[in-house]
Design goal:
Layout: E1 7-12, H1 17-28, E2 32-39, E3 50-54, H2 64-68, E4 73-76, H3 87-107, E5 112-116, E6 130-131, H4 144-162, E7 167-173, E8 175-177, H5 182-190, E9 206-209, E10 217-219, H6 220-232, E11 237-241, H7 249-256, E12 259-262, H8 265-277, H9 285-293, E13 296-297, H10 300-306, H11 314-327
Parallel strand pairs: 1-2, 1-4, 2-3, 4-5, 5-7, 6-13, 7-11, 8-10, 9-12
């Protein structure tokens, strides 16, 4: 456990979009004694006071309790978005792997578990006003991502009941972006060969305006700050995390100098379904359905109980991300490698 030299924090999914930001902030925190980053493929370099261990959560052979030994907190971020055509594979990593993390936290007697849930765990909700953390978390059942996040909310309910000595924090962030995640997220959602330069404003004279396409965005570093605050405080329960204002076609049109043009949901979905069916687009039409139904989140609890406030507006987040797409930005881990196509 923690000593005079600081606390020991274990981070799963430490080389991804959120993990790289969380590990960096923890390594700069004077209260941190050491950070252990778990990932399938470990990077060649390390921030201060950080070590790595190669672990695949989908493997039943992984001894997670040994990895968690003497930890003051486990921050569970690991998640597989693909293959979207094989939900059984993502279920093994995301759901069964996460349940193994929960079991190992209990076996190793780790006092704090911070779990990465998501806005995707929420049931369909309003776009005209924001909801707090009491909104139902049943997800959108057709989308594997939402289905898995919602299932784990129930699994965590059971874990908290059976292990009251563990302080459990659930983070429910909006869509997370930063410059360094641009190449990774282009590959995950747009496809490996989608040209990043397509994000140039002059190539987008019009912008599809789909009814219901109003969401929230957050800078990954702002989310990471909330994770560190959760480790350092005594809070428990769920926290919504999102930047302001909500993102819609008007905001994007102004940002890109493009004119929003109304496009029916059915037309947009048909195009996405066709591209996904041909394996040209990794993002599934089921996820598109879910995004149109996600509620807007009220982040009052994070402000009042965590003392958290995002440093970036939603427009600043997206502008930084789009520049990253144009430049093929990335980072020095396998998931985050930069690549410019086109």
């Amino acid at each position: 456990m923690s000593t005079a030299t600081g606390s020991r924090i274990v981070v799963t999914g430490a080389t991804g979009n959120v993990g790289t930001s969380v590990v960096r902030l923890l390594s700069q925190d004077p209260e941190t004694g050491s950070v252990l980053g778990l990932a399938r493929r470990i990077p060649d370099s390390s921030p201060p006071r950080t070590e790595w261990s190669a672990v695949d959560l989908a493997s039943e052979q992984a001894d997670l309790a040994e990895q968690f030994a003497d930890a003051d907190a486990v921050i569970h971020l690991a998640w597989a978005f693909q293959p979207t055509h094989d939900p059984a594979t993502t279920w093994r990593t995301n759901v069964l792997g996460t349940i193994r993390v929960f079991e190992a936290v209990a076996a190793a007697k780790v006092p704090t578990l911070v779990h990465a849930s998501s806005v995707g765990a929420y049931s369909p909700g309003p776009k005209g006003h924001a909801v707090d953390e009491s909104w139902p978390t049943h997800g959108w059942p057709d989308a594997a991502y939402c289905r898995e996040k919602a299932y784990l909310e129930r699994a965590l309910d059971t874990f908290e009941r059976d292990h009251p000595a563990v302080r459990v924090v659930r983070m429910r962030p909006a869509f997370l972006f930063k410059r360094e995640s641009a190449s990774e997220q282009r590959r995950i959602f747009g496809g490996r060969f989608l040209p990043g330069p397509l994000a140039r404003p002059e190539l987008l004279p019009v912008l599809p305006d789909v009814p219901g396409l109003r969401v929230q965005a957050l800078h990954t570093d702002d989310a990471a700050h909330a994770y560190v605050l959760a480790v350092r405080s005594e809070v428990s329960g769920a926290f919504n995390l999102a930047g302001e204002p909500p993102v819609d076609a008007d905001m994007l049109g102004e940002m890109l100098g493009a004119r929003p043009v109304r496009l029916p949901r059915t037309a947009a979905r048909s195009a996405i379904a066709a591209a996904w069916g041909l394996h040209l687009l990794p993002a599934s039409p089921h996820l598109f359905d879910a995004v149109l139904r996600l509620p807007l989140m009220d982040c009052t609890r994070a402000r009042t109980e965590l003392g958290w406030r995002p440093e970036h507006t939603a427009a600043e987040v997206l502008e930084e991300f789009l520049r990253g797409m144009q430049q093929g930005a990335g980072a020095g881990t396998e998931p985050m490698k930069g690549r410019k196509v086109g």
